[in-house]
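FYI - complex with protoporphyrin IX containing FE, inputs then prediction.
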Amino acid sequence: TAAVGFTGAHQAGIVTPAQDRLHFVAFDVVTDSRDELVGLLHAWTAAARRLTAGEATGPDDTGEAAGLPASGLTLTVGFGPTLFTAADGRDRFGLAARRPGPLAELPAFPGDRLDPALSGGDLCIQACANDPQVLVHAVRNLVRLGSGVVRVRWTQQGFGRTSSTSSAQATPRNLLGFKDGTANLKAENGRALDRFVWVGQDDADWLVGGSYLVTRRIRMLLEEWDGVPRGEQEAVIGRAKDTGAPLGQRAEFDPTDFTAARDGRPAIPRNSHVFLSHPSNAGTAMLRRGYSFVDGTDRDGRLAAGLFFIAYQRSPESGFTQVQRNLAGDALNRFTEHTSSAVFACPPGVADDDDWWGRALF
Ligand code: HEM
């Protein structure tokens, strides 16, 4: 229920211990006026400063969070490739020359079933908190403040964090029933964060200390999954379902040993999710911060559920894209379908009371 600090070298909501709930919003900018866009970023920053402290946005606040604590609310902003160069090639805000090289649309991956209306966006806000009422209040008031400047393109709500981002947190389970986040990069891994998560001096100057955000809405085919015996499920993931231990080991945090054998075969199968995504085979790492979702049931009465995958990395290409390419032969792919995709550059943190989201960019 405590408030998370809003200012700092990096934006809150990345290595902040993952909260229980997510409300993610992607926006399209509907004005061509650079001044209106800058005005909105000023207004959003002021509102975010108050909201994350558990305060109302001002006299026009919608009121439903009155009396509720800050609930660990973080608001993290990101800029999509189309903010710099619109889909039709226009440079609406004079930003085209400032687009960081790595901020490009993700390549297509085999098996993608992306819905364009649920993908992309000029801007995004990742809102996380421990109370869904606090979340909807924050999102609703930011949308209200954006009227005439931005339009909501798509949103995704999530519950039950599917990652730990701090070693002080217990590892949660995803909807497959497996512990998720065991081998994640965590707040305490300072050097690995500098290497894999925070944008360095080799990228655009306004983005140094920021990070690239990749989101993928991954539908899980849970009815298929539930028909698979536990031993086979474990072979798909590469870890034990109850303890979360790597196959061939005993405890959750035992190191993965890809040389361990069982019945003359590798204990961790070569097409398992953990084998293919592990840094020793994927050649890289990222910070995962995803959430489970259940968007009701589909027309066939199947749970419209899955994992809203969120990853932070210092470059989309050497982070998500590299791992996702390596996952082309993942045994897990039989049970998943990617239905939405987006990429954003998240600027560094707001330094002080006069600073605002994206100041160094404009
Ligand atoms: C590890 C589940 C999609 C990257 C894991 C683990 C589970 C899991 C249970 C093992 C525990 C852990 O270390 O966190 C899932 C599910 C997915 C999914 C259910 C889809 C519905 C992805 C995607 C990527 C990814 C799309 C990246 C492209 C990773 C990485 C690890 C991991 C990097 C850590 C591997 C290691 O270092 O041992 N995932 N995952 N996952 N996953 Fe996923």
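Residues 174, 176, 178-184, 216, 218, 220, 237, 239, 256, 273-274, 277-279, 306-307, 309, 320, 323-324, 327, 336 surround protoporphyrin IX containing FE (CB under 6 Å). Residues 21-346 form one domain.
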